[in-house]
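Annex B.
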Amino acid sequence: MGKLIVTEFMTLDGVGQGPGGPEEDEEGRFIHGGWQAPTLSAETGAAIFEQARSMDALLLGRRTYDIFADYWPKAPAEIPFTALINGVPRYVASSTLSGPLSWAGASVLPGDLATAVSELKQRHENIHVIGSLNLLQSLLQLGLVDQLRLWQHPVLLGSGKKVFGAGTAPAALRLSHAVSYESGVVQFTYDALGVPPKYGDMAKGEEENRRMMESRRLIGE
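Dihydrofolate reductase family protein: predicted structure tokens.
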């Protein structure tokens, strides 16, 4: 069974909209497009590519597909990502696209999302999702995400579409990797545990601790 691995670039306040350029995604009159560019470096670029090398299929939402399809087929060959992204099967989760797509090797994911992604996991070892914020919410709701790779940038925007916006499904995660870079970017890798979060009561915990300490005092520990 393959894994679904999600990579997201986000600000400190959780915005994932339009990281690549001013006109990438202006929905909602977003004026901060291109916020990621100033913190890109050779170091982070190499790390992003190294993580992507395991990709043997790419799953995208409609908007991200349009952005990628406009750029990557004609991207410079010297960019490492060019051969990688153009060389793997690409699937689009969309209810509005149909028929053959102009980007060779890309196809619309058939049927309902849960069934289609489960079938992809049978055929591919590492299915990557990049961006695709609306699709991410659906994948999380269906419990289909196996790993989250979050690249958090030292920027506050105050507006824009959030990576984890309203409607995000509650879920417990395990941090498996974390690294910081000189640019201030921090990369976190979380594995999905497939279970809801645990809850507690800190006030009750404090009271129980107080009673335990009092008991130890009384018996002379």
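The beta strands are 3-11, 57-61, 90-93, 106-108, 126-130, 147-153, 173-180, 186-192. The mean pLDDT is 92. Further annotation is deferred to the next reporting cycle.
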